[in-house]
Amino acid sequence: METRSQWGTRAGFILAAAGSAIGLGNIWRFPSVAYENGGGAFFIPYLFALLTAGIPLLIMEFTIGQKYRGSAPMAFSKMNKKAEWIGWWGALVAFVISTYYSVIIAWAISYSTFSFNLGWGEDTEGFLFNDYLQLAAPGEFGGFVPSVLIPLIIVWAVVLAILFAGVKKGIEIANRIFIPLLVVLFLFIVIYALTLPGALDGLNAFFQPDFGAIMSADVWVAAYGQIFFSLSIAFAIMIAYASYLPKKSDITNNAFIVGFGNSSFELLAGIGVFATLGFMAGQAGVGVEDVVAGGVGLAFVVFPQIINELPMLNGLVGFLFFASLVLAGFSSLISITEAYISAIIDKFKISRAKAVFFGGGLSAVISLIYATRGGLNFLDTVDYFINQFGVAFIGLVEVVVVAWFLREVKNLKEHANGISDIQLGAWWGFSLSVITPIVLGVMMVQLFVQNLL
Ligand code: PFF
Ligand code: NA
């Protein structure tokens, strides 16, 4: 008897997987990573990484989830009892990420409301740390910050309500609304950005190729790192989402759509971000290289400054920018949370309602730490460790176990080819068993050397 939840439509699955992939990583990580790693020339290692690691692993995770019809721990355990822990490891990392990813969405909600009257004032950095986050000295805890706490509670209420509603009625419907809306809002912002004076200088700086850079191993590592994080690979997410696919589903084609869709959004974000940075550099009379930023600094310090200076529609553009962060963030947070909720449901055979209440509830409670006055210090540390060691490490273990220990490549390939239009050739197995392990292995060695020596 088939009792597992299922997506209602193929588009629903594609939008949910794309929703997981398209997130803060596309908007605030990709543009600065590309700029710092060869600019226009970065697209060579980036495309290489997409085709030899990103899409092959996405196909692998989709196939594992669809074939074994289980969340990551269950799917791995059905493949081989001894491999269950890999799924739990991914689910655990997903759990940790969910606790702070939610906090950033909460900030973006606040900032979308500040946009209307440019409530962050002239000193946007001072505003973020002193007025909004009320940051305490390192190690000091001074209770909750209500301005963060309230939107954070809203974030969890929305996410848990969506997950409670289930795969078809919750996750699928949410993504069918969020993702098209996100694309429209974002297109509007990018087109607006392109009309700003100085936009072309920004784009020139962004696309200016430094071909010497691609001779450097660091740049290749950065490209693979970006692809992994950006496609939400190795976090138990894509396996869980694929486990809700019907028996007959085109896996390979879906993976290509999600992979290229995510990269297109990334490119669009790069154009929008650098057009605006070009405008800002022009206003300040400095070079684009002096204003480049990424991460929290880009979104919550630099962008508010830019929004202050826009020639028209400041409030609206600011609102749309932060609303885009909120939509992109929600669709990713839903997927990270579902990754471990589905694992709990499968393992303990409890109802979705209970898993959402206890599993999701625990994340929500832990995330409240970041809404205290000392919270930001914590967030930086946790994020650093997850990014440095979580992504590449699990990815490496996953491909090595699947390709070398369990020798599953042939099995999975036959399964995917049996139900997909595009037929996987030898390149797929080669990418999984040779290219990806080598690149990720080098990446791990490099990270350990950098961090431990
Ligand atoms: N892929 C998302 C992004 O590019 O922002 C980020 C992400 C989502 C990473 C979910 C990890 C994750 F579990
Ligand atoms: Na992404």
CATH architecture classification:
Orthogonal Bundle
What is the H/E order? HHHHHHHHHHHHHHHHHH
Q: Ranges with pLDDT <50 over ≥5 residues?
A: none
Count of helical regions = 18
Distance between the termini: 55 Å
Helix-residue proportion: over 70%
The rounded Rg comes to: 21 Å
What is the name of the CATH class? Answer: Mainly Alpha
Number of strands: 0
State the major sheet.
none
Mean pLDDT: 94
Shape: globular
CATH topology: Hydantoin permease
Q: Structurally, how many domains make up the residues?
A: 1
**Class of secondary structure makeup:** mainly alpha
Explain what the structure shows.
With 453 residues, the protein is mainly alpha-helical. It has one domain: Hydantoin permease (Orthogonal Bundle). It contains 18 helices and no strands. Helix 5 (84-115) runs antiparallel to helix 16. The longest helix is centred in the last third of the chain and has 35 residues, at 314-348. It is globular. It starts with 9 loop residues before the first helix and ends with a helix. The chain binds 4-fluoro-L-phenylalanine and sodium ion (NA).
Give me some keywords for this one.
single chain, 453 residues, mainly alpha, Hydantoin permease, 18 helices, 0% strand, binds 4-fluoro-L-phenylalanine, binds sodium ion, membrane, Sodium-dependent transporter, Na/ntran_symport
